[in-house]
Specification:
The structure holds two protein chains of two kinds. By secondary structure, chain A is mostly loops. Helices cover 0% and strands 0% of the residues of chain A. Chain A has no helix or strand. Chain B has one domain. Chain B contains nine helices and no strands. The chains are: A little secondary structure, B mainly alpha. Chains A and B meet through loops of A and helix 1 and helix 3 of B. Chain B: InterPro entries: ER_ret_rcpt. Chain B: Belongs to the ERD2 family. Chain B: It comes from Musa acuminata subsp. malaccensis.
């Protein structure tokens, strides 16, 4: 499954 | 990381520190909406679910802990601390924040990047953050005299998201496939909600008069 990019923002 | 995002995070941090300073030193939360503080605690609790699963950077983890710790301790101060709670304006702070939480939750169930618990909670936290300031803005309209620290708190809180908008524009043009419509629209709505406050805040600063919002 297409992994979503990590949420790197606060 | 870019200068806009760093400026945004530092402004956000300052807003929290200004509020903690006010509550901790003069033991007063006059003019502060407990409803907004509770909504912010919920925003951080649902936004940072990944704090122990996804490690981004030391900076990211430390900032998340600061925002979680400060938002929950502010709620604790306003609810439990015998001196601070006395200055809480219960009669004026009557915004029913349940009517903000429910629509945001329903919207998050429909509009999200992926229908998983974490992604729905993440979208919910963005929608909720966009409207979390409403009880505070309503309270400011009701309480005539807005003290400087409260005015600075709301101003910094609005300014941080404005910096983030520049950060999103910068990242859109510098990083391929950087598209987050949910974040962008929520952040834009959030900043627009502060527009009239900014207008009156800037005028009170320019004319060097006390900040006063029209009824």
């Amino acid at each position: 499954n297409m992994e979503l990019p990590l949420k790197d923002e606060l | 990381m870019n200068i806009f995002r760093l400026a945004g995070d530092m402004t956000h941090l300052m807003s929290v520190l200004v509020l903690l300073l006010k509550i901790h030193t003069i033991k007063s939360c006059a003019g502060i909406s407990l409803k907004t503080q509770e909504l912010y605690a919920l925003v951080f609790a649902t936004r940072y679910l990944d704090i122990f699963t996804d490690f981004i950077s030391v900076y990211n983890t430390i900032m998340k802990l600061i925002f979680l710790g400060s938002s929950f301790s502010i709620v604790w101060y306003m609810r439990r601390h015998k001196l601070v709670r006395r200055s809480y304006d219960k009669e004026q702070d009557t915004f029913r924040h349940f009517f903000l939480v429910l629509p945001c939750l329903l919207l998050a169930l429909v509009m999200n990047e992926k229908f998983t618990f974490k992604e729905v909670m993440w979208a919910f936290s963005l929608y909720l953050e966009a409207v979390a300031i409403l009880p505070q803005l309503v309270l400011l309209q009701r309480t005539k005299n807005i003290d400087n620290l409260t005015g600075q708190y709301v101003f910094l809180l609005g300014a941080y998201r404005a910096f983030y908008i520049f950060n999103w524009i910068y990242r859109y043009f510098t990083e391929p496939h950087y598209v987050h419509w949910i974040t962008w629209i929520s952040g834009l709505v959030q900043t627009l909600l502060y527009a009239d406050f900014f207008y009156y805040y800037f005028n009170s600063w320019k004319n060097n008069v006390k900040l006063h919002l029209p009824a």
